[in-house]
Amino acid sequence: MLVAVSLLIGLVSTPSYAQTIGANVFPNGRAVQVGSLATAFATITNLGGSIALSCSITPVSAVFGAGFLYAPVNAVTGALSGPANTPVNILAGASQKFNITFVPNAPLAPVEVSFIFDCANTTSAPIIIGFNTLLLSASLTPVPDMVALTSAPGGVLSIAANTPTGAFLIASLNLGAAGLITMSADTGATPLPVGLLVCEFNAFLGTCVQPPSPTTPARTITSGEITFYAVFVINQGTAIPLNPFTNRVFARFRDFGNVVRGLTNVELVVEGTIPTTPDVTGTYLGSGTLTNSNCSDPNFNGTFVFSTNVSITNQIGALANLTGQFSSVVGGDHFTTNITSPSVTDLVGRVMTATFVILTTNITSPSVTVANDGSVTGSFTFTFFINNIFDSSGNGTLSGQVIGNVLSFTFSAQDNVGGTCSTTGSLSANR
After folding, report:
1. DSSP element (H, E) containing 10
2. Can you give the pLDDT at residue 328?
3. Distance from CA of residue 51 to its chain's centroid?
């Protein structure tokens, strides 16, 4: 009898951990002034088939000089729906959103805060750095506080087999003080076989503000300013499996002192290797024709023959820079045109100098894509000079191919500053 009672007590007192929960935090970084609230949202999801009892949130380790509170909120309105630091029950298959708050009362260097998300009858949610953790810092003086969100569906960037490059966009809001900010990308504590380039992104034009590089140029982000960025992940031919704990790409915002003042990240999956993109770098010499129409100065309407000197450099996988010079003489007059970025246009029988900046991505940008068959496509902007005097500028697109040592492409463009013309043309050049 005593044995039976002992077994019964054991069954009653031993909690069941057959149920599991998941958790996430947004944003994944806050940078505040000492004495200010550092808030974020956390969500606990009940993945089990029965109610999760007494669910709570606790930092794994106390954060020195910072008190902590959590409270349930309405998922739609964000309004508090219960008292602070009080566990709640979560129905099967449901989620509960919480407001989590730190109150730093002393300076705090950036620290990655992990949390115990737990319920009385479940296992704790697994800790995933950058997914359900918070990078927290506090300063005596106001600092930038970059809250960022990615465009990746479900927080996952998946690069399919035979795809040379993947990309995701970031929207950020500076909730702190104005300050110089740069953004760069990395793969955290786990080195991954990919290349990473970033740029500040013009959401209106759908292009990078500057050519993609490892770090964006430092610029002042004002308080309350919304900025956009793009991160390009270059497939280097090695498959990367689904593993949310290790395989992630982080975007970090740093201030003038190289202190991280915000971050976001995506999970990365690369599904397979890619064919080798051909090396199209080199200098190409040749000629072409262009036709101007609808020019504000009718003298510039017509078809003109030009000579060309084109160089393709800095190829990284499917990304490359293209620069060139196009020149022609009309009526004995010598003209010079400087085209900036990926284009050749609005040259009306004058010497044209074109600089193409081309990036391979799946978004519209001032870049050119080099495909596995040698195809080259991209968009561009340009400026046009006559006898070294500025005349006009605009943008356009180009499409062509490198076969062996021969580069050929067609282009179209439109001036939008200064004299106006609509331009189409083509060229062929040998390396």
Report:
1. helix 2-13
2. 65
3. 38
Residues 248 and 184 sit within 8 Å (Cβ to Cβ)? no
Q: Which residues contact 283 (CB under 8 A, 6 or more apart)?
A: 309, 310, 311, 431
308 vs 376: CA distance, rounded Å? 17
Task: Decide: 389 and 341 in contact? Cβ < 8 Å.
Answer: no
User: Which residues neighbour 340 within 8 Å (Cβ) at sequence distance 6 or greater?
Assistant: 354, 355, 380, 381, 382, 383, 393
Measured in whole angstroms, the distance separating CA 45 from the mean position of its chain's CA atoms is 27
- The helix (H) or strand (E) run that includes residue 72 is strand 66-73
List the strands of the sheet with 52-59, edge to edge: 88-90, 52-59, 115-118
Residue 207 has φ and ψ, to the nearest 5°, of -140, 160
Q: Model-level pTM?
A: 0.63
What is the Cα–Cα distance from 419 to 335, expressed in whole angstroms? 14
Distance between CA atoms of residues 409 and 358, nearest Å: 14
CB count, 10 Å around CB of 120?
A: 13
What percent of the chain lies above the pLDDT cut of 70?
A: 84
- State how far the Cα of 265 lies from the Cα of 152, in Å rounded to an integer: 9
Q: Are 360 and 164 in contact (CB under 8 A)?
A: yes
Number of Cβ within 10 Å of residue 423's Cβ equals 27
Bridge partners for 384 per DSSP: 392
Cα 95 → chain centroid: 28
Cα 126 versus chain centre, distance:
26
Specify the amino acid at residue 246: T
SS3 label, residue 265? strand
Q: How far is CA 344 from the centre of its chain?
A: 28
pLDDT of residue 414: 86
**Beta carbons of 38 and 102 less than 8 angstroms apart:** yes
Specify the pLDDT at position 331: 52
Tell me: the pLDDT tens digits for 78-121? Answer: 899 999 999 999 999 999 999 999 999 999 999 999 999 999 99
Q: Sign of the C-alpha dihedral, residues 330, 331, 334, 337?
A: negative
**Distance between CA 346 and CA 337 in Å, rounded?**
8
Strand 179-186 to 329-330 pairing: unpaired
**Which pLDDT belongs to residue 270?**
92
